[in-house]
Amino acid sequence: MNFLASWFGNQNRPWARQPWRRVTQFVGLFGLVLAIALGCTPNNQTATDTPGATDGRITIGTTLTARTLDPADAYETFPGILLYNLGDRLYTYEPGTTNLVPQLATAMPTVSDDSLTYTIPLRDDVTLHDGTPFNAEVMVFSIQRFMENGGRPAYLLSEKIASVEATAEHELTITLSAPFAAFPALLSFSGVTPVSPESYEIGTGSFQPDSFVGSGPYKLAAFTSDSIKLDVNEDYWGEAPANQGIDIQIFTSAANLYNTFRTGGLDVAYQTLDPEQVTALEREASSGGWEAIEAGTNVINYMSLNQTIEPLDDVRVRQAIAAMVDRPLINERVFQGQAEPLYSLIPASFDVSEPVFQAAYGDGDFELARELLTEAGFSETNPLTVEIWYPSASTPRSIVANTLKESIESALPGLVTVNVQNTEGATLWENVGKGIYPIILSNWYPDYYDPDTFIQPFLGCENGSGSTCKEGPSQANGSFYYSPEANDLIAQQRAEQDPAVRQELLKDLQQIMVDDVPYIPLWQNKDYVFAQGDIDGVSIEPTQQFLLWQISRG
């Protein structure tokens, strides 16, 4: 994925960096697949034949690769999961919940009256993997390195933090450049983890992709293109893992992973399985002796409508397209029920999420679509042509686009024609911000667990005029949406410390989204985990993390 490095010119701008999360989903993730068993087993071995079956080690299989384990540069899903288990953060989430709690901090931050300064007390009993004592200076070094080395996720902190300093041996003080209520949640990002100043350095482009020296429950023992090994950190300050280590096997295809799991060579399979494989494993769970676990995700899938291209500059046309979308049909035909219809860009897992598109446009309301198009001047003698683009490597989006085409053209014959187009993913995302494509099918993986990550990257714009964004997040997302009202509301909700008041502001932003329709939410993925009967502690967190230290052999 090195070609991604040249996609955006100014790497310090947030809107120039955030598409990484989306791109990763297309080029490497129809879902993450993990599979767990004891030892590294050839595909013809059973779980009981697995080397290491008596030493308590767990094997994880995945079809994904980890480009890097340097927390200052890792910005893909799988490395994020590994870093979450190899390192600690100032704040984390209580397992099984979305309750943010201290981890390396000893309390939630004290926030100044102007909401700019965060004072964080730190633990004094933590030692890094190389024996370095953890203190505020180590955390300052790690945060500065994250911001200054120029890695892919650097903007997450560099655009928000004005200064970070050690105000006592175990007290960290961070001053923001502007109020940001979600800042404690941001500090739970997998890459904001302490690393040893003895093993790392601050400097542009100075990264260590195949090593990790931090503070977590595991130490990195081996890192190659086809396997990763984590050993238990015997000096870990917190609760010891429920296993004796993790051996990760990287598979070349979902089919290999599926077959290996079915024949007992792996203990757990997690995501990237095709819908047919998921259905088969669910159906055979009882007879096969494994458990099927279903969980929601925070990955959203949506249409981005470019309002700089006619006739999408007419809000009535965008509203009509929203009315044409039949989400239950997409879920049934494309995903075999393995998704959830999405009616706001904020996932339903957040309390603040409002199903605004369902209330305003329904699903496949073609009469409403006809009324709106007629009002906009379209008819059978002056039909509307809709052009939908998707990355060619994405089979699900190909099926979604053609399902929409068939549904719309069947319901509105002669009035609407849908042209489905695709191009290679790198080309697509290189040109999205240039305004080339009318409509694109895209997805979004959040950087941290807060509704802001589903609002600001979509509606925010730094430089715009009229209703068009010239430069900013919405331009990078392909809608080119610009609204001074939306910008003001975004700034207000980011600054608001009162959760109830902030929730009302987020509701207002969702209403703006449904009124102006720069995007159309489509579906929300489901997560599936398949665990052999003798494996315990396997689950996907509400925040989408996979806690390896909880897994044990029953």
Automatic annotation (TrEMBL):
CDD domains: PBP2_NikA_DppA_OppA_like_20 (cd08519)
Chain segments annotated as transmembrane: none
Top-level taxon: Bacteria
A GO biological process held by the record: peptide transport
Signal peptide as annotated in the record: none
Subcellular location: Cell envelope
Keywords: Signal, Transport
All copies of domain Solute-binding protein family, residue ranges: 100-465
GO molecular function: peptide transmembrane transporter activity
InterPro entries referenced in this protein's UniProt entry, alphabetically: Peptide/Ni-bd (IPR030678), SBP_5 (IPR039424), SBP_5_dom (IPR000914)
Entry annotated with the keyword Signal: yes
Family assignment from sequence similarity: Belongs to the bacterial solute-binding protein 5 family.
PANTHER family hit by this protein: PERIPLASMIC BINDING COMPONENT OF ABC TRANSPORTER, PERIPLASMIC OLIGOPEPTIDE-BINDING PROTEIN-RELATED
Protein name: Peptide ABC transporter substrate-binding protein
